[in-house]
Amino acid sequence: MSESAPLDPEDKKIITLARSARARGGAAEGAAVRDETGRTYVAGPVALPSLTLTALQTAVAMAVASGAKSLEAAAIVTEATAPADEDRAVVADLGGAPIHLAAPDGTLRSTLTQD
Predict the structure, then answer these.
(1) Which of 7, 27, 60, 107 could anchor a disulfide with 103, C-beta 3.0 to 4.6 Å?
(2) Reported pTM
(3) What confidence category does residue 114 fall into, taking pLDDT thresholds of 50, 70 and 90?
């Protein structure tokens, strides 16, 4: 994980969207991704008896279901201090975009870049 340069407006936007998903659902985390065409997908976690997904896994699944082939960026808003392994893996499946990890107030904590 590395500290990043100032975020561009589009990355700030997905952090804001992830933060709103967290607040709207009253969930521990919210996530948003931006695909290769600039479309954004926003989600919270899924916790069903037969299906459990993190917020980022849900956002990526929504992107893929809508035809996304790769991601430009991902954001997670959470109290956690690092993305979960399954979150890194699902982003890597679509090309390894940077993952911005933000605190519940939207403050960027770190950016994970996958090489």
Answers:
(1) 107
(2) 0.92
(3) confident
Task: For residue 108, give the H/E element and its range.
Answer: strand 108-112
Q: What is the CATH number of domain 9-112?
A: 3.40.140.10
12, containing H or E segment: helix 9-25
| CA–CA gap between residue 44 and residue 19 (Å, rounded) | 10
Q: Hey, what amino acid is at 102?
A: A
Dump pLDDT digits (tens) for 71-97.
999 999 999 999 999 999 999 999 999
b vs e for 46-77, b when ≥16 Cβ sit within 10 Å of the residue's Cβ? eeeeeeebbbbbbbbbbbbeeebeebbbbbbb
Alpha-carbon span 33 to 11, nearest angstrom: 9
